[in-house]
Amino acid sequence: MDALAHFLLSWTDPGLLALTAAGTFAGIYIGAIPGLSVTMAVAILISFTFTWDVNPALALIAGVFTGGVYGGSRSAILLNIPGAPAAIATALDGYPMAQRGEAGRAIGLATVMSVLGGFVGIAALAVAAPAISEIALAVAPRDYLLLALLGLLLVGSLSGESLARGLFCGALGIVLGLVGLDQMTAEPRFTFGTTDLLGGIPYVAAMIGFFGVSEALMQLRRPDLPPIRQRIDRIIPPWSAIRRHGGLTLRSSTIGVVVGALPGTGGDIAALLAYDSARRTVKNPTHPFGQGAEEGVVAPESANNAAVGGAYIPMLTLGIPGDAVTAVIIGALYIHGLKPGPMLMIETPHLFWFTVGNLTLANIFLLIFGLTGIRLFTRVAEAPRALLVPLILVLSVVGTYAIQNSATDVLWMLGFGVVGYFLRIWGFEVAPIVLGMILGPLIDASWRRAMISAYDDPLEFLQGFGESWISACLAAFLLAVLAKAAWRMLRPG
After folding, report:
1. What is the DSSP string of 270-301?
2. Most buried of 248, 302, 466, 491, CB within 10 angstroms?
């Protein structure tokens, strides 16, 4: 069979077609439940597919992966609870849109832009996989450090009216993210002698607490406010909106592909970087960012779905996982007797084209299922607070407990929720804390690996920026962003 036949195999086989559709549908609704991650869903599925043929197993997994990355946007928009870390940035503008009665428009926009971003990622996988994998291999620890620092600059965008408060929250998040065993020496850090902290603080539990529980407590401060009626007369975005956001979608999708292809990153970092890029490049957003800008939904949603195709690139071409989900998928490939990496492209090239075709099909099902059920979902945002607050709390507890089946995680989540409530009352933003928890360990490990590779010589470390075009470009971009921010702060008036 030629490449086209393998590409269309899932399209023409009723069994594979049904499995892809079922996986995408399940992924959307699993991803919409806070705490139920895509990684968890794929890991559970693999245990059921040990005895299956490889094609049905990969078809189901691709559907769950595609749908799950998008699904987190539903709860982020409606309840201000990101279903997954990749939807944190979506909540920043998606939830304010829902508070204006535009939840249907926000979900429709997130769906269409996720699909467009997914197609960009799949196109990159099909056309430029070898080239992108070579770039991914050339990325050094200092480049990961620069990427993490670029992401950390998003603190300025998430700080609200006070940059000082945002910096405090970002620093607090970094400290919380470093709790536990040191990644490189296994020495306890910030554990205060207790074994309960050796595993670190689960940032997903913190995310659910800071966003979900604190939001429920904030709702209790205004129990008499009437529910917000949602306008759902037009769910599918008009062509004018798609054309308006086309350039941003392409830029954000490119960020998603590149970041997704870097081992150990994934859609959450891609979405945050794309959101930050949108804030810096979009001159006339539909609303101010953080107050319901459509661009604040478009950028992260197109980036995190494009990262799916990006994550498959190093997995299939190099045998290196792009994120946690593809690490699990690599295990599934080995179980089925396959060897991810350069030899896979030589010995079983049909599998590559089957995967590309399967992801394309899953993306089409994402559009179909993503645009259905929106009217029912938006009823959640219209529910009276007497029903909405308990619903948020129940989802938060169930989702947090499901992460590791740990009651301790639930206590962490509730504690962070109370802390987040008081921080929000006092004018602090909680998003920089979660950002710091995600990026802190990456900054720490990347800095130390970079210095080890430079033999602990600062001059050797700096010389590396002149020896790598990737490092030079990232450093120049970082300096340009810092210089622009300094100019805005220091210019008169």
Report:
1. HHHHHHHHHHHH-SS-SS-TTS--THHHHHHH
2. 302
